[in-house]
């Protein structure tokens, strides 16, 4: 049942990201709602669920967005790898770690997408793309973590694995 709820949430996030979000730009970029939801879910509910949800959410996004199918999946793999840091308990409390990890995940996500574009023959201006795309996207996504994390934490009830702070 939890994966059915997660799939509906991710499908709505992907639909929202591909239909409504392009109308809004913040710092010249569009937020990656699916990435924020995936990382927040991984921080609240744990790595085991993230390993199922990352492919589910990114393939749903790829089907709706018209990108190369699997490109978002490949670009989102750092989410799973970076949430393993949570288990190390470097920072007390998972909320601050979630904000830090969305910044790192977004930078990795956008960099991997740039590499994919380059491998498919597109011309990529690395420094300009990184400064105008990746860094602002990381900031915008970090601003979306508090509401996403909070709603998932509240909605998880007895299923959550971590404390809120």
Describe the structure.
The chain has helices at 2-19, 33-45, 47-65, 71-83, 85-88, 94-119, 126-156. It is mainly alpha-helical and 165 residues long. It has one domain (2-159): Arp2/3 complex 21 kDa subunit ARPC3 (Orthogonal Bundle).
Q: Which tags fit this structure?
A:
single chain, 165 residues, mainly alpha, Arp2/3 complex 21 kDa subunit ARPC3, 75% helix, 0% strand
Give me the Rg, rounded: 15 Å
Runs in which pLDDT lies below 50 for 5 or more consecutive residues are: none
The CATH C-level class name: Mainly Alpha
Number of strands: 0
> Which oligomerization state do the chains in this entry correspond to?
single chain
Order of helices and strands: HHHHHHH
Integer count of domains: 1
Give the name of the CATH architecture: Orthogonal Bundle
Query: How many alpha or pi helices?
Result: 7
Instruction: Tell me what portion of residues adopts beta-strand conformation.
Output: under 5%
Sheet having the most strands: none
Average pLDDT, rounded to a whole number, is 86
Q: Which fold name fills CATH's third level, the topology? A: Arp2/3 complex 21 kDa subunit ARPC3
Q: Supply the helix-strand structural class.
A: mainly alpha
Shape: globular
Ends: how far apart? 27 Å
- Percent range of helical residues: over 70%
């Amino acid at each position: 049942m939890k994966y059915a709820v997660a799939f509906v949430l991710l499908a709505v996030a992907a639909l929202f990201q591909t239909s409504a979000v392009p109308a809004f730009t913040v710092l010249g970029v569009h937020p990656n709602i699916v990435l924020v939801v995936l990382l927040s879910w991984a921080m609240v509910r744990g790595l085991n669920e993230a390993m199922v949800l990352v492919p589910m959410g990114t393939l749903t996004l790829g089907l709706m967005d018209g990108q190369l199918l699997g490109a978002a999946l490949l670009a989102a793999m750092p989410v799973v790898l970076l949430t393993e840091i949570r288990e190390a308990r470097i920072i007390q409390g998972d909320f601050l770690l979630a904000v830090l990890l969305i910044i790192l995940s977004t930078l990795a996500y956008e960099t991997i997408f740039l590499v994919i574009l380059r491998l498919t023959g597109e011309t990529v201006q690395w420094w300009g793309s990184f400064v105008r795309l990746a860094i602002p996207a990381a900031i915008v996504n970090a601003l979306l973590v508090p509401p996403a994390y909070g709603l998932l934490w509240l909605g998880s009830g007895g299923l959550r694995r971590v404390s809120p702070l």
